[in-house]
Amino acid sequence: MKRLIALILVSAFGGAFISTTCVQLSTHRTVIAQDAAGTGAATSNTATVTDRELADFTPEERVNIAVYEQTNQSVVNITTTMVRGDAFFFGEVPSEGSGSGSVLDRQGHILTNYHVIEGAREADVRLFNGDSYSAKLVGQDPNNDIAVLKIDAPAKVLFPVMLGDSAGLRVGQKAYAIGNPFGLERTLTVGVISSLNRQLASPNQRTMKSIIQIDAALNRGNSGGPLMSSRGRLIGMNTAIASRVKENSGVGFAVPVNTIRRVVPQLLRHGRVIRPTIGITRDYASEEGLTIVSAAKGGPAEKAGLRGFRLIREERRLGGFVQVRTRVDPSYADTIVSIDGKRVKTTDDLQTIIESKKPGDTVSVAILRNGQKMNVPVVLTEDGE
């Protein structure tokens, strides 16, 4: 029998709330910059050790201590409440879930995973000092498993996490995960980056790219918590584990901070990520590229003249009756070879290229039609229009 490895999102449940007004990106960035400069650096939930006491620790332990003392007050515990149907009582039964998050700014914005709050009716955020606040949903991006909440807490108890850069990460460098496994608040686990550029299925079954793989222990409740560098900078957000037993197995995954940097400003501004679409609704991978099966009526692809399968109506007379049948002609369809010079072999290739653009952009689509290669300009529109 083949052994199966389950990919598990490491919080219990998730949610939907009412959107709220967000701060502008410039304000958010200013707050982060101020904290990076040292105005309000977080301290440990234990007494800060003295220089003399530090002499008792190894250099590696000193780094561990410094990272924790600098960042632990930025970590929050998120508790969600949802209602599930009960087959026995024929009614609804409340249930709870939990996860982790990071303080983004002094306005009270909290970063977490989408799957932590997915389906929840209520969410409470507990800070380092034990104070709890009701949270509202600002925005969510299921494609990247990212959500932003907001709490009305005094600025003096909010210690924003400092954002790093995931572009320069290297396999083997130290990684520090802080979260609330099994409700044990602000737990630190230490490991290394095991691999980079992994792919992982998002909650809505899209493919998340550039995922960080780590061996730091993650368990249920760690979802949404920060992954930190040895300099105390956020390099990722812990999101999943791969395990046969649904607990830590030394294989964990995190969304890179550069994805967070790209997504969060849109969530703050719009409550969602505004993505472009090319209007191709169905396709399949072929030897030459990606063959179009169908295109959205009135969508960008159809307007540009791109073609999917053709339906052919045939009539056949049998005595006094006319038999009508419809057959599909796949030879009529265009096959996409590349977009803006980038090779397209799969649906994911197509989506990756399109989502790097903006609504209103024009892309050059290289296609094969009847064995001939040609380029077709397509003007992208906003997804959902």
Task: Give me some keywords for this one.
385 residues, disordered N terminus, six-stranded antiparallel β-barrel, Thrombin, subunit H, 16% helix, 26 strands, 2 domains, single chain, elongated, 7 helices, seven-stranded antiparallel beta sheet
β-strand amount: 35-45%
Give the strand order, joined by hyphens, for the main sheet: 8-7-3-4-5-10-9
Helix % is 10-25%
Shape from CA axes? elongated
Number of domains: 2
For the biggest sheet, the summary is: 7 strands, antiparallel
Residue runs with pLDDT of under 50 for 5 or more positions? 1-46, 87-91
Number of helices: 7
| CATH class term of the largest domain | Mainly Beta
Mean pLDDT: 81
Decide which structural class fits the backbone. alpha+beta
Structure commentary:
This protein has two domains: 6-270, Thrombin, subunit H; 276-382, PDZ domain (Pdz3 Domain), CATH 2.30.42.10. The strands form six sheets. Strands 8-7-3-4-5-10-9 form a seven-stranded antiparallel beta sheet. 16% of the residues lie in helices and 42% in strands. It has helices at residues 25-36, 51-54, 59-71, 114-117, 257-270, 300-304, 347-355, and strands spanning 6-9, 14-15, 75-86, 91-103, 109-112, 119-120, 122-126, 132-134, 136-141, 146-150, 174-179, 187-201, 207-214, 226-228, 234-243, 252-256, 276-277, 280-285, 290-295, 310-318, 321-329, 335-339, 342-343, 362-369, 372-379, 381-382. The chain contains seven helices and 26 strands. The longest helix has 14 residues, at 257-270. The two termini are 47 Å apart. With 385 residues, the protein is α+β, with helices and mostly antiparallel strands.
